[in-house]
From TrEMBL:
Name of the protein this chain belongs to: MFS transporter
Topological category with respect to the lipid bilayer: Multi-pass membrane protein
Subcellular location: Cell membrane
Keyword Cell cycle: no
Organism of this sequence: Microbacterium psychrotolerans
Family matches, as Gene3D superfamilies: MFS general substrate transporter like domains (1.20.1250.20)
Main location: membrane
Pfam families reported for this sequence: MFS_1 (PF07690)
Keywords: Cell membrane, Membrane, Transmembrane, Transmembrane helix
Domain of life: Bacteria
Length: 414
């Protein structure tokens, strides 16, 4: 966008777009998420069709969440290695891991599906930890909300096309086509991120504080400033409760009297809402502050979950759209606050700790929900989830507007 175009009132690109390397980072994010969105939904549907079991399909989401226990170690690795190199190695390693799913021919190889999903999810923690530091090094404070908004929009916007592509390939050519597509996307991402202008050197090391203190330093940082502590707790409660929604998705589709493959249509509807939420997120976070923005996002997630209790595919689609708006607003608010208030040497560990505190509760709730689903009507679990997400939103409202890093109470690197 030229200056002349801006004077004529043209649409300005996001402020993060002017940062050197950010377009390349965004391109790598496109490649990663194109395969990512297609694969994990296809695997859940695949397991459902292989076994006929809602519980077996639900445990795909459990396998996705379990690597949270490794996140502190992954975060420390991201704070010790050159982050660009780590991203490249991670994407290259995912290619043969994903391709090993081609060996699955029936329910007898279900263990391999869960194992691949576990490793694939752990690699996601590596990407998140390394990328957090790269984003912080690449963008100024005033660009962070914009950059996170762009990446969130890409992530969720691809939900418009990836599940449709994945579903079409799955129905037309079977699971192998989706598997090969995903592996190719990770290979492309490795090539793209290899040219990033930041992250070539390892982060500066702080003075040693003992191995355990080093390992948990990310958690300490999350709970040091009041605003970051409150928003972290709110996100843990709100997103943790959505673990119940992961478990009830297939019973809800059964109640709507549609095929499980219909999830490949509903998720793009969520993606449409997420595109809108991602576009709005930077403005909302900048004007409202991270705490109130996170509260708004969680309220939208709660509101979007309600329609699934009524067995209507039309209402369900509307709910997915509303939920889609709320998720990126919450994620961008939390990510921006965390990155803004965390020193570079702790970015990987704090990013990993944030993923643990959000994803581990979600995984534990999914495990509990999978057990309860045998005895409890799925609609009861939906209402429990809605109530918990509202509690998370109320918690986020207690966060004070955060000052700049210099005044935020970040942990000293001593």
């Amino acid at each position: 966008m030229t200056a002349a175009a801006e004077r004529r009132g043209g649409i300005r690109p996001p402020v993060a777009w002017s940062a050197p390397g950010f377009p390349r980072l965004a391109a790598g994010w496109v490649a990663t998420n194109l395969g990512d969105s297609a694969l994990f939904l296809m695997v859940a549907v695949w397991v459902k069709e292989l076994t006929g079991s809602d519980v077996a399909a639900g445990f795909v989401f459990v396998a996705l969440g379990l690597p949270a226990i490794l996140a502190p170690f992954i975060g420390m690795m991201a704070d010790r290695m050159p982050r660009r190199r780590l991203l490249v190695i991670n994407n290259v390693a995912l290619v043969p891991v994903v391709l090993s799913l081609l060996l699955v021919s029936g329910a007898g190889q279900l263990w391999l599906v869960y194992a691949v999903v576990f490793v694939y999810s752990a690699a996601g923690y590596v990407t998140a930890s390394a990328q957090s530091g790269i984003i912080r090094a690449m963008l100024r404070d005033e660009q962070l909300a914009s950059g996170n908004g762009v990446l969130s929009t890409i992530d969720n916007g691809l939900r418009l096309v990836s599940p449709l592509i994945g579903t079409a390939l799955y129905v037309w050519l079977g699971a192998p086509a989706v598997i090969v597509l995903t592996a190719a996307c990770f290979a492309a991402a490795a090539i793209i991120v290899a040219g990033l202008p930041v992250g070539a050197a390892a982060p500066e090391r702080e003075v040693q504080r003992g191995y355990f203190r080093e390992l948990v330093a990310g958690f300490e940082q999350l709970f040091a400033p009041q605003s970051l502590r409150v928003v972290t707790i709110a996100a843990a409660i709100g997103f943790g409760a959505t673990g119940l929604l992961n478990i009830v998705v297939f019973p809800a589709l059964d109640a709507m009297r549609v095929d499980p493959v219909a999830i490949g249509v509903l998720v793009p509807i969520q993606g449409a809402g997420a595109v809108l939420g991602g576009i709005l997120s930077a403005t909302i976070v900048t004007r409202w502050g991270e705490g109130r923005a996170a509260a708004l996002g969680l309220l939208l997630v709660a509101a979007g979950s309600v329609p699934f209790a009524f067995g209507s595919v039309v209402l369900g689609g509307a709910g997915m759209f509303v939920m889609g708006i709320g998720i990126p607003i919450t994620v961008v608010a939390f990510s921006t606050l965390r990155q803004r208030m965390t020193p570079d040497a702790l970015q990987g560990r704090t990013g990993a700790a944030a993923n643990v505190l959000v994803n581990l509760p979600q995984t534990l709730v999914s495990i509990i929900g999978a057990g309860l689903l045998i005895f409890v009507d799925y609609r009861v679990l939906i209402w429990v989830a809605v109530g918990a997400v509202v509690v998370g939103a109320a918690t986020a409202l207690r966060a004070r507007r955060a000052p700049a890093l210099a005044d935020a109470g970040a942990l000293p690197l001593e």
